[in-house]
Amino acid sequence: MLRLIVAVPISVIAACLGAVVGVLAVASPRSLLFLTRAFPEFLFKRGMGREGFVISIPLPSSPAVVLLRCIARAAGAFGAARLVLVVFGLGPLASIAVLVAALLGAWDLRRLTFLSSMSFSPPVATVQLYRVQVIIGLIVSVAAVFLFLNT
Q: What pTM did the predictor assign?
């Protein structure tokens, strides 16, 4: 029981970090390499926190790129959660799978609502691409839930 109580929050945090790393690996590999080099310096050197760093991720240009990013994000999120559960000696848990899928869906919906609530009107093509991204993200997340539970 104690393993479960400790493993669930750690696996959710790992899923969030895995999703970010998965998207960065596909969208901007150079930024991922920069982050792996800059993050230890940011943590362990005094005064580095004041300088900071910025990572640029280009917007997807087509639904195929959106699909690739959603697959990479789901693979990173569910892979990291599964890795934490394996380390703690637990099998795939349905509650973790549903929670990670809900987090990924909320991530997409938050970005869409942020785009819709801007003070100026964004381009129609951008809004349509974000709507497609939400739909593709939900489909990929549901498919990843089934893969997570059946492997």
A: 0.82
